[in-house]
């Protein structure tokens, strides 16, 4: 199995060395990686892998039965051998944007839960904009202004963001009702990796996040779309504070 080295709180690291366990023309598997594999609404990291006999660009990263496959876009030289050491470099600028976006999504979700008692039914993080589906919800323009204003006010507080593994029972007791769909996480997953914003939010999450809210900047809500009965989608972008 590939060790997810960025967990629980090393998601700011973007350069590392690891050992090859499998290499094909399509993908490379390592014994450990700081590349984030697509999941939880967050896209996979991109970057490069290099070794003595070659280099490859990584276009996608996905889990596969415990392994993490680094899918190759371009390959120069020969493939590395099993047991060979490679140097990995995650696209740091893209990673930082996704960290900021994902943390902003947590803040928006918590604000909407507090202000409108609406649960996050789904989300998708992108570099340029992100979206969140809420239910039950029926927002108007004034509601969107409230969400944007309240979210930016929280971001301005520059609260600390911690990432840690915690016992499942403890997390279930502390997570506000409606904050996440804990029932969708298999019972055997214990402990849970948790992202906590001091005195504001707690949520099980395996994604990458900043260490303080001040790193996010502000958000601007771009659009609202009805996705069916009592389901509203909000799209937002990041802007400088």
Judged by helices, strands and strand pairing, the structural class is: alpha+beta
What's the pLDDT, averaged over the residues? 96
- Biggest sheet features: 6 strands, antiparallel, barrel
Query: How does the overall form come out from the CA principal axes?
Result: elongated
* First-last Cα distance: 41 Å
Oligomer class: single chain
Helicity range of the residues? 10-25%
Q: Helical element count?
A: 3
**Rg computed from alpha carbons, rounded to a whole number of angstroms:** 19 Å
* Strand order in space, largest sheet: 2-3-7-6-5-8
Query: What percent of residues are in strands?
Result: 35-45%
Low-pLDDT regions: none
H-E string: EEEEEEEEHEEHEHEEEE
Tell how many strands the DSSP assignment holds: 15
Give the SSE layout.
Blueprint: E1 3-4, E2 15-23, E3 27-30, E4 32-33, E5 47-51, E6 54-64, E7 67-77, E8 85-90, H1 92-116, E9 119-124, E10 130-135, H2 141-156, E11 161-166, H3 168-174, E12 192-197, E13 201-204, E14 218-226, E15 232-239
Parallel strand pairs: 1-4
Antiparallel strand pairs: 2-3, 2-8, 3-7, 5-6, 5-8, 6-7, 9-10, 10-15, 11-12, 12-13, 14-15
